[in-house]
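Tokenised fold entry reproduced for everyone:
>
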Amino acid sequence: MPLSNSQKQKLKTLGLKVKSIRKDKKLTLQELAYSIGKDHQSIYRLEAGGINPSYLYLLEICKGLEIDISELLKDLEA
């Protein structure tokens, strides 16, 4: 089932938040990807809003960013 425009926007917002936190922590895509055993293209697609990440994938991202998932999801629209 294709995503609605609203859903696509939510994924972009999530991706931008991941990117912002990553940059605040002065991590490159490659460094974050390496720290969680993923390829940097996967992280790039997440940050661009191009994928709908699973809960487990988000937990891995948070581990690499050294944040709790609640910090990532805080202030995101439900």
Summary: Helices lie at 5-24, 29-36, 40-47, 55-65, 69-73. Residues 5-24 form the longest helix (20 residues). The chain has a mean pLDDT of 95.
